[in-house]
Amino acid sequence: AMDTDLSSQDRKDLDKFIKFFALKTVQVIVQARLGEKICTRSSSSPTGSDWFNLAIKDIPEVTHEAKKALAGQLPAVGRSMCVEISLKTSEGDSMELEIWCLEMNEKCDKEIKVSYTVYNRLSLLLKSLLAITRVTPAYRLSRKQGHEYVILYRIYFGEVQLSGLGEGFQTVRVGTVGTPVGTITLSCAYRINLAFMSTRQFERTPPIMGIIIDHFVDRPYPSSSPMHPCNYRAGEDNGAVYPSVEDSQEVCATSFSTSPPSQCVFTVTKAHFQTPPPVVTDTLKVPVMGLAFSHQLSSSRLSYQPAALGVGSADMGYPVLFAGGLNAAHPHQLIGPGKEGGVPPVPSQPAHGTQADQERICTPLDGVHYSAATPSSSEDTETVSNSSEGKCGSPHDLLETIFIRKVGAFVNKPINQVTMANLDIPFAMFAPKNVELEDNDPMVNPPASPETESPLQGSLHSEGSSGSSTGNTHDDFVMIDFKPAFSKDDILPMDLGTFYREFQNPPQLSSLSIDIGAQSMAEDLDSLPEKLAVHEKNVKEFDAFVETLQ
Amino acid sequence: SCPLSSHCCGPSSAAPAMNCRAEVLEVSVEGRQVEEAMLAVLHTVLLHRSTGKFHYKKEGTYSIGTVGTQDVDCDFIDFAYVRVSSEELDRALRKAVGEFKDALRGSGSDGMGQISLEFYQKKKSRWPFSDECIPWELWTIKVNVVNLANEQERQICREKVGEKLCEKIINIVEVMNRHEYLPKMPTQSEVDNVFDTSLKDVQPYLYKISYQITDSLGTSVTTTMRRLIKDTLAL
Q: What is the ipTM, given to two decimal places?
């Protein structure tokens, strides 16, 4: 009886509005967790394709997932659309952060005009969603993702499941819109005990080194939708693109045009907030596996670049985590779920649950795919060029070449000494050393000093000159011409430039060298009894001295 | 105190009219955070109170342009907000907020003031009477400027003010969600009585920004009560 009050045209319109509202809601939420700033342009002339008069881009993969979850249904009483946002660390631990719920309740507003009022209120609700998605704790976490964790999303339809949020979760209501068939409500339940995961902690931890294998997490709930990273962009699958959103007459969303790019370009977003970026003393060269790359949504064209494993490397200040197993047989193939959404077995993975229960980091594709955005002009991003040739040998070689570590200032091992095995030893320089290596190490035994006029040379350098150019630290930068201002000094017969160059690479302090240090310590210990005896003899003098101080 | 009248409106009462809802928000911020905090609140309100440009067609129907949005990161507050993608609108707000900030810093103030964003409708009167401005929504942000002693306090302030602003955004959204009175959608001849049609890419409801600097007793001490009209802004 309720539905007969609504004209069939109104009913059709209302259903369409609700459907596209649901799709746009998912887009706004996922885009707000990509880890980058979103920017879309206003357009005074209506294009007829921007739903709710708002410029919200449609990421095809996200729309695809949302439609899959909805499976042709609309939110109704007891059937809510939920977007679950969770965090996954490099060690594979994951934690639910938020559940965004689009629900329908029975409270109907018969008088309301569908084509006009409902539409405008849905538009207003989307604006509220834009605002609210920036103020929950997960926003700041998502802006700093990529280093030690990624943010994932999962869409499901049915009953809301909040138990994964931990105790004491909070709820924020985004808004409601009454319609003749029920009241749409949009809200977010979010975890608050993130104390141990404060962003500050992530800033201080050192960068992760090593392969991060995605081990599939058993989902506690038998829901069938897999997890996706918020900042992973789907690639083309042999030219096929996800069907555009619209399946009715009205065009509703801009679809991306994909053209094969000639070069793979990565957009790296710098730290946005005023906190300093993590200090990276070693940079990893890792093959990019399609994760943790931000992209600029404001360009309306996304280029998709199919790329193979070991494609080259992106030298980044923010080491990339990648997930997915390495298929020993096909080093170029990322183990990802197959097209059906299942996951092919990966060797040496822990037992996992059913296909449907698995977390999915990459979309079902044959090869490694990641999309790269066209270079943006935003000052917040820098593009890192990358060659797209994927030439690599056996997986073993691949692993070897992956971890080329750029040696930092305090490491006294030459580059080619750093292998996989050494990577898990922190502070490797303090480990017991191979004497042979030490002899060859210029940091411990610097070469003989060259001729120089500096009077300071002799006193400062017991073992040789710092002018040697074999130090590894020279790799960091080369001074071409150093003309420091105000550098002439009457006292020293050298200028600041020369001084700098000479003392740029001092040899390792002898006290830091274990052998010599140990030696002198042994000497000190031996001489102690003697010194004590002397002091005891002079006790009276000491006492007198102390008296004068009182 | 009586606000100065604008060039287009007759004297309007300082108190909100009967149908005007009034919301008050309070924030305590450091001096350098004033601008960003004010912009965050004002932009969030205007995001909800702006539409795309109307294009009237024959038969009295109209189509609406598209509103774009963008994220803004604050430099002095651990906070980010969304604003409408319109440089004109952003400039207008920055100018108003800049003047407010300067007035707060000026003499005669001990760091307390308030900035108001008023949405109004114009009601045209016949000559010789001038048009009336009838406010229908008034947002007031009360600001208390604090002085901090050291860097540690400043860092805590960055975070605390960020959290406070998150609460304010939630408050604003709650008010917006009430779907209370909004001016009727106007016909083509009436559109300038309801909306500001002077911007090229978006169309906010007609609005005015004004501010007051108060002393610690809460009374307005100076004649720095000013009314900023968009038309007079040198854009």
A: 0.88
